[in-house]
Amino acid sequence: MTTSTQPGTTRHEDTTATANRRAWLILLLAGLVEIGYAVSVGGSKGFTDLSWSIAAGVFFFLTVFTLSLALKNIDVGIGYAVWTGIGSSGAAVVSAFLLDQPLTPARVLWLAVIIGGVVWLKLASSPKYASGQA
Q1: Residue closest to 93 by CA, chosen among 36, 44, 29
Q2: Cα(119)–Cα(104) distance, rounded to whole angstroms?
Q3: pLDDT band at 13 (very low <50, low <70, confident <90, very high)
Q4: Residues 34-78: pLDDT tens digits?
Q5: How far apart are CA 108 and CA 5, in angstroms?
Q6: Helical (H) or strand (E) element with 77
Q7: Is the pTM of this model over 0.90?
Q8: Cα distance between residue 102 and residue 85, in whole Å
Q9: Of the candidates 45, 10, 29, which has an alpha carbon nearest to the alpha carbon of residue 90?
Q10: Residue 8 above 90 pLDDT?
Q11: Residues near 121 by Cβ (< 8 Å), separated by ≥ 6?
């Protein structure tokens, strides 16, 4: 949300905060699409299954596109780490159901560590925390 100080003007902080929130939502979407891409590549069996291969191509385009949109307002290193964290953790869980791949307690533990790292990266990237006010 932006607030107006005078007709036709907006405060810079409000538009920056809105853009930052939007970028994080787009990054979350990019991570979710990355899950679709990773699972599709696994299901394609080396791109020998046509339907899974087509799905992989569509998901690839969408994940790179949404990631590039998010990186307009998020540092590349942080954005990429969050994107891959969401994608790798999500792909492990989804592929356990769709592709009957094992999800052992040890894997769940280390996936939880990845997810915890993603959460801490998000928290560390907030303007309040970065400026030392947290």
Answers
A1: 36
A2: 23
A3: low
A4: 999 999 999 999 999 999 999 999 999 999 999 999 999 999 999
A5: 50
A6: helix 76-98
A7: no
A8: 19
A9: 29
A10: no
A11: 78, 81, 82, 85
